[in-house]
Write a structure and sequence with these properties.
With 338 residues, the protein is of the alpha+beta class. The protein has 13 helices and twelve strands. It has helices at 19-29, 42-47, 83-88, 90-95, 97-104, 109-114, 117-122, 128-131, 172-178, 196-199, 280-286, 293-303, 316-337, and strands spanning 12-14, 33-36, 55-58, 68-70, 74-78, 182-187, 190-195, 218-225, 232-238, 249-258, 261-270, 277-278. The chain has a five-stranded antiparallel sheet. It is globular. The protein starts with 11 loop residues before the first strand and ends with a helix. 45% of the residues are buried. It binds flavin-adenine dinucleotide and iron/sulfur cluster. Iron/sulfur cluster binds at residues 125, 127, 129-130, 136-138, 144-147, 156, 164-166.
Length: 338
């Protein structure tokens, strides 16, 4: 069990001023190095002395990783842009308010001032056992402490578990998936871009990571195409306390309604599995249907198909069903009330 000592283990600190230098340092030190963004996730691990990297690469001096830029057909958000900047950026608020809503619900103003969008989508699991240093599957052990009849597992997964039942805790991730964002990475082989939904992985692919970044890789930016700009959005987060708390579940949807029918839709949830889930079956089922409570009902049922609760998180099944239902039917209410 971890004891908080507030004295971090010694490490060599690098503070590069370009992406090229940062990537070179990371490549040189491989598994010994750890990328530092806002530090809100990392400092816990260091202060608890659970993770002890030899090298820390601080990205805060790299100006090219900061800020929001517009291109002819997209916006690009630097990985080191703070969540507060994401929330307050006028273009994001005007055209991609799904993301500003999601980012505004992350933790507290202080955490949003320091935490970055790159760190938010790359943060680690918040499972109590893992964060306390218990030697579970995710920590290279051979047991899951959360998946037992008496374990504390209210916050854990109801879908796609594979030995580990931890969930991805990011609020911005499902909004970025719904907006069809692309994640831009710098690796030893050059630049690589992936769809937001492919950035995240479950324990079936690698039980020690929630994303595809490997030692030496950097997330440099997130691009949001204009395809979904200004469409109808729905974001809802449910948490135990209405301040400063991780999601138990959240849902993000972007929808184009033509006449009284759903012409196009992208919808994703987080907090249900080790990776944020794009609900493709739901998208296919509701396309061409009215954005009504009845369509939402069908969508909600479909979304939770195959869900398997643990001892203390069965509530997540009706919760997810209702969030998806409201994401479809709620847009209709918003339309009629405007
Ligand atoms: C009390 C508390 C409450 C919170 N509540 C919420 C919440 O409600 N919703 C929510 O979504 N989040 C929440 N968070 C998480 C918080 O938003 C994240 O910890 C934060 O966004 C991480 O960002 P950071 O910049 O501090 O990342 P860091 O802690 O610096 O890094 C996090 C991880 O990402 C990696 N990383 C970061 N940037 C890059 C990059 N550019 N390239 C490669 N790897 C990178 C780091 O190596 C590290 O592994 C909470 C955190 C705390 C402490
Ligand atoms: S849920 Fe995952 S992180 Fe938590 S104890 Fe089990 S294996 Fe470890």
């Amino acid at each position: 069990m971890a004891v908080i000592r507030d004295v971090m283990p010694a490490f060599e600190l690098f503070q590069p001023s370009t992406v090229t230098d940062a990537q070179k340092i990371l490549e040189q030190h491989g598994r010994d190095a750890w990328v530092l963004a806002g530090g809100l996730d990392i400092f816990d691990w260091l202060k608890d002395r659970i993770k002890k990297p030899k090298v820390v690469v601080d990205l805060s001096g790299i100006e090219e990783l900061k800020g929001v830029r517009t291109t002819s057909d997209s916006i690009e958000i630097g990985a080191m842009t703070t969540l507060t900047e994401v929330v307050s950026n006028p273009i994001i608020r005007q055209k991609y308010s799904l993301l500003s809503q999601a980012a505004e619900l992350v933790a507290s103003p202080q955490i949003r001032n320091q935490g970055t969008i790159g760190g938010n989508v790359s943060q680690d699991a918040r499972c109590w056992y893992y964060r306390a240093g218990w030697p579970c599957y995710r920590a290279d052990g051979n047991i899951c402490y959360a998946d037992t009849p008496t374990a504390r597992n209210r916050e854990h997964a109801i879908l796609h578990a594979d030995r580990c039942v931890a969930v991805n805790p990011s609020d911005s991730a499902p909004a970025l998936i719904a907006l069809d964002a692309k994640f831009v990475m710098r690796t030893s082989k050059g630049e690589r871009t992936v769809d937001a939904e492919d950035y995240f992985i479950g324990p079936d692919i690698d039980i020690t990571r929630l994303h595809i970044l490997r030692p030496g890789d950097l997330l440099t930016a997130i691009r949001i195409p204009s395809t979904w700009a200004g469409t109808q959005f729905y974001f809802e987060k449910v948490r135990d306390r209405n301040v400063w708390d991780f999601p138990l579940l959240n849902v993000a949807a972007a929808m184009v309604v033509s006449g009284d029918r759903i012409a196009q839709i992208r919808i994703a949830v987080n907090g249900a599995a080790a990776r944020p889930l794009r609900l493709k079956a739901v998208e296919d089922a509701v396309r061409g249907k009215p954005p009504s409570a009845a369509t939402g009902e069908v969508a909600g049922k479909l979304a939770v198909q195959g869900a398997v609760p643990l001892q203390f998180n069965a509530y997540k099944i009706p919760l997810m069903r209702n969030l998806v239902k409201r994401a479809i039917g709620g847009v209709e209410e918003a339309k009629w009330s405007s």
